[in-house]
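QA checklist item 7 of 12: single-chain prediction sanity check.
[x] sequence parsed
[x] length recorded as 325
[x] structure emitted
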Amino acid sequence: MYGEIALFSGNGNRELAEEISAALAVPLCPADVFKFSNQNIFCRLKTSVRGKDVFIIQPIAFSFDEDGQMLTVNDNLMELLIMIDTVKRDSAGRITAVVPYYGYGRTDKKDQPRVPITARLVADLVSTAGANRFLTVDLHAGQIQGFFNIPVDEITAFYILSDYIRQKNIPNAVVVAGDIGATKRSRNFAQALDLPLTVIEKRRVQQEDGSKAEVLNIIGDVNGKNCIIFDDEIDTAGTMTKAMAFLKKEGAADIYACVTHAVFSGPAIRRLQESPVKEVVATNTVSIPPHKRFAKFTQLSVASLIAEVIRRIHLGISVGELFNE
């Protein structure tokens, strides 16, 4: 049996950690996590965690600190690993890494010669640092769970997102898979909303000059319909905005984008603002600073969900039953 819950937060998404803390009615434990002038990251606990059930909340995504300075994906990954090592050396009873967004998750297989499987490497690093459990939200690929040698709880924002869309009562709607790879996820979303599914198919075709061009095709009907594009994340928004433009060309009415992770890197905000999208809906697994929020963006919180899962892990109650109720 482990001691009381001890919650810690890195600098990856302090706002979400504070919401989780409030939902659990458990205060965040004080700790200093910062960089020295030589860019080395350091962690110092201000309270003992000996024998406690420790949960460290830290997405592996870029973020911004209180001074507006950007912390890279690698900064936040190293913060996570160093914090795990710190509480391990203070004799924590059990350590759970709570990683709402799993960075490097898209490099999950060797799809070409001489490339890494970085999703596996990160899993090894988390385990080696000393984590006993891993909690995350909507992995890019389900097989990543198998990369860990420790128990993994992958929870989903599916119901938070589907409930929000259902309450909007969008008329004459259809769910759209942005590509073939998103078909299964989108099919489940369509089924939950009792809506038809259409799929955007992308093909590379050889042109007369020897070059290859991308041709889009639609499987299903979107003419005059309100389209809901469902996927796990928006990164640079290139694929998403191309899909939106194609849907408009095919006669779509209003277009909604619905994803778990709003990574919004590079030109994403500009592309979305210039796109024909009516609303972009995402959760707060990734920290979104004020300068990346725009009029058509709606953010939903996963704090209560993560808090309940932390409570269940601590008490030894089934997590799976939470999604079967």
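[x] summary fact logged: The chain has a mean pLDDT of 94.
[ ] second reviewer sign-off
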